[in-house]
Amino acid sequence: MRKQRVLSLLLFGGIVGAVFMAAMPLQNDPPTKNEIILRTVGAMLEQGHYSPKRIDDAFSKEIFTEYLKRLDPSKRVLLEKDVNRLRKYETRIDDEIHGAPLDFFAALDEIYKVRLVEAEDIYKQLIEKPFTFDKNETIELDWDKTEFASNETERKDRWRKYLKFQTLERYNDLLEQQEKNKTKADFVSKTNQALEIEARGKVKKGMDKYFDRLKNKFDENERFAVFVGTITNEMDPHTDFFPPVEKRSFDERLSGRFFGIGALLMQEDDKIKIRSVTAGGPAWKSGEIQANDIILKVAQGTGEPEDLTGSTTDDAVKIIRGAEGSEVRLTIQKPDGTQKVVPIIRAELKLDETFARSAIINSGKNKIGVIDLPAFYADFQRPQAARCSKDVAKELEKLKAEGVDGIIIDIRDNGGGSLQEVVNMVGLFIKTGPVVQIRDRAGRPSQMGDSDPSVLYDGPLAVLVNERSASASEIFASAIQDYKRGIVIGSSSTYGKGTVQRAFPVGGMGNGSGAGDLGAVHLTLQKYYRVNGGATQLKGVESDIVLTGIYEAYKMREKDSPNALVWDEMPKANYQTWTASPDVALLQQKSKARLAGNDVFKQIEDNTNILADNRKTSRSLELKNYKVQLKEIKDVAGKVRDLTKLKTDLSVANLAGDLEVINSDSLKKDRNTFWINFLKKDVYMNETINVMDDMIQQKGMAVKN
C-alpha cells in the first residue's frame, strides 16, 4: 500500500470569531437584518480574504456600476436620469458597508419598483400589435455596448425591438417547422399572419412569466442578496454570498442532486443559463451541453416544447425533472448564437460515472494507454469509498499488464476536486518531493508532497488538458511539467483557478455546513503555487504542445474575469526533476512540422473566432437578413464540429478484463460506447497519440529513473 505524507498541513479557521466581533453594529439604533448582513460580510472580506481590495470610494464606484448592471442587465427598466439621480451614492457604498445607513440600496429599490411597473405597461401595449419583418433595422444584443435609455421614448423603442426580435425567432422556427412537416399526411398549412400571431403569443406567455417573477419572486430580499453578491464578487470571482435558501440548494446540488440531468442552472435576465455541468451526469454524457449554454425550450420526449423565457430556475427545474429513464429534449443556444435540440435520458447521478477508466489505442506503431479522469474525487468520511488516486493506480497496473508503451492522462473538462488526491496521484509518477505550495493571507507558506520513493509507472507520460481543466487539474499538470516527468498537451493554457475557498456563516454559527441564519460567504483564503514557484492562478498551466481549443475564443477563463486575483510567485521549492525527461523542444518541432501539413487546428481557431465575434454582432430584424445571419452561424458551427472529428477512426478498445463489468449494466454499456466512439473521432487525441509515438522513440524515456 502506498503511504503519503503531507509535508505541511493546510489549516483553516481562526478568522470566524474575529470577523463577527468586528461586524458589531456601529450605530446606537439596533441594526436591521440587511445592515447586519452587509457589515458582517464587509468585515469578513476585509479581515479574512486572501488579498482584499480596499473598501473605499473607488471600490464603491465599482459596486455602483456593477449592481446596476446586474439589476437591469438589458437596460430596459431604468432610465439614464434614474442613474444620474443615484450618482450621489456612488462613493457612499463603502461607508454603508462600514456602518452608515443603507441609503443606496433603498433609494435604488424604490426607483426600480416604479420603473418595473412602467416597463410592464410598455410591454403589454406593444405585444398586442402585430410585427412585420420586412423593415431593415437591427437590435444590439451586446448590452455592454448600450447605455441606459435617455428618455421614455427610447426605452419604449428598446422594448419594441426586443419583443420584435423574440417574435422573429419564434416566427422563423414556425416557418421552418411548417416547411419540414408539409409532406406529412395530416399537415395543415397556416398563413404567415397566423404564424406571427402564434409566435407573438409564445413571447407573451414567456414575458408574462418574466414580469411575474420580477414582481412577486425577485423581491427585496433577493435583490439585496444580488447587491451583497456584487460586493463579494468584486474581491474575486469565487468569493460569493449565498442567502439561506440558495445555500441549502447549493449544498444539495454539491451532494449530487442535479435536477435529473446533472446541470446547475442560473437566472440571467429572462433566460435560464447552464452554470455548470456535472461530470458523469446525463447532460455531461450527451456531449452537447456546456456551461454558459442557454436553455430556450424543454420538451417531454417528442411532445411540444415549452418556452422557458421568463421562467424562474425553480420553474425550469420542475419542467426538466421527471421519471428516471424518461426523455427530456432541451433546445439550447450556444454562446455563439447557434441552437440545437439535445435529447437527454433522465437519470440519478451515479458517483461511479465520474470514476477513472482506461482504454488502449493502437497507433500502428505503439500501444498507448489512455486514462480518463473527469474529477479528482474522494470521500474522506468513508474509508472504503472510492478515491481517484487509488483508482488511477489500478488502471495503471492494468495498462502495464497489457504492455502499453506509453500512457496519456486525460483531464480535459476536469474542474478539480480533492487536493490530497492530486498529491497522491502525482506520487504515482515521481519518487519523492513537494507537489504543491500554498500561501495564506499572512504570507505563510506550506507544502504538500509525496514521501513514498516507489514509482508505479516510469514510462512515457502525457497529460491532455483544455481550457476547462481547472484547480486540482492544474496542480497535477503543473507538477508533471515542473518535474519534467511528462509533457502537457492541449489548449494554450488551462483555466487558471489557483485559489482556495471556504464557507463561513452569516448570522449565528450555522449548522456545520457553513450556512448561518442569514446566509453564508464562500471566502477565498489561500492561493496555490507550483513547485517551480509560479502561481496557477490566472495564467493556468501553459501546454508544451499547443492544440487550439474550441473554447479559447470565448474568453471564459479566469484571466478573462476583471476581478480575478493576480498571478505572482513565491520561492521555488526544493525538488529533483526526472532524469529521463522528454526532449520537449524536439517534440514541439515534430508536432509543428506535422501540423504544417494539416491545418485543422488553425481552422478550428479561425472558425471559433468567427463564432465568438458573432456574439458581439447586432441582429437583423428583417426576416430575409435574419435568415442569412442564422445560416452563416449554423454553417460555421457545423464546420467546427466537423473539424474536431477525424475522418479515419483511431483504433480504440477497452481492456478485455473490463468488458464483463461494462456489459453487466446497460447504463455503463451506453456510457462506455459513447466514450469509445468519442475517442475514435477525437482530433485532439489523435495528435496526442502522434506526440506519444515521438516520445517513445526518444532514447532513454522508457527506463527507470
CATH class of the largest domain: Alpha Beta
Q: Percentage of helical residues?
A: 40-55%
What is the averaged pLDDT score?
A: 88
Task: Please give the order of strands in the largest beta sheet.
Answer: 18-15-14-11-10-9-20
Residue fraction in strands: 5-15%
- The CATH topology name of the largest domain reads 2-enoyl-CoA Hydratase, Chain A, domain 1
The number of distinct β-strands equals 20
Low-confidence runs (pLDDT<50, min 5 residues)?
A: 1-27, 247-259, 510-515, 700-705
- In whole angstroms, how far apart are the ends? 21 Å
Major sheet summary line: 7 strands, mixed
Overview of this protein structure:
The chain has 705 residues and is an alpha+beta fold. Helix 13 (388-401) links the parallel strand 10 (367-372) and strand 11. The longest helix is centred in the N-terminal third of the chain and has 30 residues, at 152-181. A 7-stranded mixed beta sheet has the order 18-15-14-11-10-9-20, with helices on both faces. It folds into 3 domains: 19-235, no CATH class; 258-345, Roll (Pdz3 Domain); 351-697, Alpha-Beta Complex (2-enoyl-CoA Hydratase, Chain A, domain 1), CATH 3.90.226. The model is unreliable at 1-27, 247-259, 510-515 and 700-705 (pLDDT under 50).
